[in-house]
Design brief:
By secondary structure, the protein is mostly helical. 58% of the residues lie in helices and 0% in strands.
Length: 132
């Protein structure tokens, strides 16, 4: 697939619903035995899903200023290639002080429900602003 400069509103809305359904499924089992250990794995993996839904987004439109799209990209690369510790992407100006999750290089990536909610909401807002 070629790089995407635009996403149809229907597609973005469907992706948001897909994420919301997954979070709702988690909420139904939350609090049952074993879900504490499950939460981190679930929400770390949900960031991977979030990124993949828009994996072909054009980097020129995404920019490299440390925005939520950048943060998701760096988190995904770190989960997959840096043993779950926040890595650095020298082409992106990601500042922990202004990022959604405030992760520093070397921090273990451990997402919980509120952190994922904040990140996904900011991610979708940035997708809508730049790609619709």
């Amino acid at each position: 697939m070629l790089a995407a400069n635009k996403y149809p509103k229907d597609y973005v809305d469907a992706c948001r619903r897909r994420i919301d359904l997954q979070v709702a499924a988690y909420q139904r089992v939350k609090g049952t035995p074993g879900t504490d250990a499950f939460e981190e794995q679930f929400f770390n993996n949900m960031v991977l899903v979030l990124d993949y839904l828009f994996v072909h987004r054009t980097r020129a439109l995404e920019l490299k200023d440390g925005n939520p799209l950048n943060e998701v990209r760096v988190i995904c690369n770190s989960l997959l290639q840096n043993d779950g510790r926040m890595g650095k992407d020298n082409s992106i100006k990601l500042d922990p002080a202004t990022s959604i999750l405030g992760l520093h290089v070397g921090d273990e990536i451990v997402l919980d429900e509120p952190g994922f909610a904040a990140l996904s909401h900011a991610f979708f807002a940035d997708i809508e602003r730049k790609f619709m």
